[in-house]
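Quick one:
INPUT:
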């Protein structure tokens, strides 16, 4: 009758059967964007200074394109600038969950796409440039008021 070994076995059995404390797991990031809250701190890329650049530059270029005839290189640069700005605004509108501006800017990005250009005459591009400039001007006010309401 080896009592000390039995107590050792019992202690080992109790240790094995005893509930062990669960190590705390780090919190998982919220991957469901639609349920997360949008705050100014999360999106530093959408600061008002950056939005101003991405709206005023294409606005000025589009108005310049309406006013005079320019060399072909200017129109190529115009396509790049307007398409990049429209893509920026598409992302910003999706963050703001604004479907109207999302689709409007996506259409502008496709229309001014420099990689697969849409060829139209100068007579057709003139009104398109002016209307696109007005869309960018309206986006300054509409999306800026939406962004100012962020917490």
């Amino acid at each position: 009758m080896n009592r000390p070994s039995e107590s050792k076995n019992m202690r080992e059995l109790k240790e094995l059967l005893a509930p062990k404390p669960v190590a705390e797991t780090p919190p998982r990031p919220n991957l469901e964007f639609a349920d997360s809250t949008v705050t100014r701190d999360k999106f530093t890329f959408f600061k008002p200074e950056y939005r101003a650049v991405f709206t005023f530059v294409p606005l000025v270029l589009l108005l310049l394109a309406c006013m005079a005839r320019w060399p072909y290189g200017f129109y190529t640069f115009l396509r790049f600038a307007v398409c990049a700005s429209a893509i920026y605004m598409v992302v910003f509108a999706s963050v703001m969950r604004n479907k109207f501006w999302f689709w409007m800017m996506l259409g502008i990005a496709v229309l001014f796409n420099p990689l697969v250009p849409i060829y139209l005459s100068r007579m057709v591009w003139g009104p398109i440039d002016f209307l696109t400039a007005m869309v960018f001007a309206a986006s300054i006010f509409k999306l800026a008021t939406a962004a100012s309401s962020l917490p």
